């Protein structure tokens, strides 16, 4: 079963909030401490966790306490770390494979964004002294935690923009800071304002989410098993808590598996709009365009609309990841000003395609099963239509022969 995690970020995301949520959900702090020691910078920080209240809710706060003595000693000749040095630390640490790969990917993403902002190559990006240790522990610790939980896929909510300004190495910056904006742009993240004028998404938090999340938006369909609450540093009008949902996928599939003999469920998007002022000739064109964009099915129903106008209800069924493409076509090709969309579960039967020979030519036949039993056998319409045209024979005769041929050989 696929293990899923969902980062729900009503007050944004920061590295320490990720660590807090992971420890809260059951990742042992001792495990993280032990693995992080392999980075060879244990003399620079201490890791500790505590339970705190945020607006009356109990959550876990993880602190990365920087050891001042070390920083004063090093300050004269060590003003931070560049990407190659951090990559070397991670590679030498002999972390679990996924944690190692994810950590490198997150740092690379962060350096690419910072580099783009400053107009320099990622390798030249300078992670400032204090921030570097924080970022290393937050990023590598988060990757270790997700690996320990054996997460297969991570999802993330839309992210709040925040506002105001924040103090940075080169003076004050507007929030969201440039690197965060760049990371959002790189992944086309959905963002919104929750009205809180503070820094809500940090560069580290944005790098973790944009690198590791499969998708952004609503929670995936899942059987919910655990919730971890990671506290942020400051008090806000709403609880400053990152919520980590853990669960298992419910029978979702990417391709039809012909070896699987039971029906299964998948999440599908349903788009609807009603139209009363469009030339009917456009509808046929829209059908073709929607199917080309990945729609599973498209259909219309006649309806009565306001001002006694006859109209149609146009419905599109498509995979979640094709919603944007299908909506773009609807807005571009119809007169509609609004589209409703919802996510629904549908139960599907495993099916396979077989070729059968008729005296007029070969026809593909779709076979659907329920358990071991075959419950539906249907020759493909297009194949029958092509042979019917070629041989000037009735379509239903080709269809009948294809069925007869399949049952004769079954």
Automatic annotation (TrEMBL):
The keyword Hydrolase does not apply. The keyword Lyase applies. Keywords: Lyase, Nickel. InterPro entries: Ni_insertion. GO terms for molecular function: lyase activity; nickel cation binding. NCBIfam families: nickel pincer cofactor biosynthesis protein LarC. Belongs to the LarC family. This is Putative nickel insertion protein.
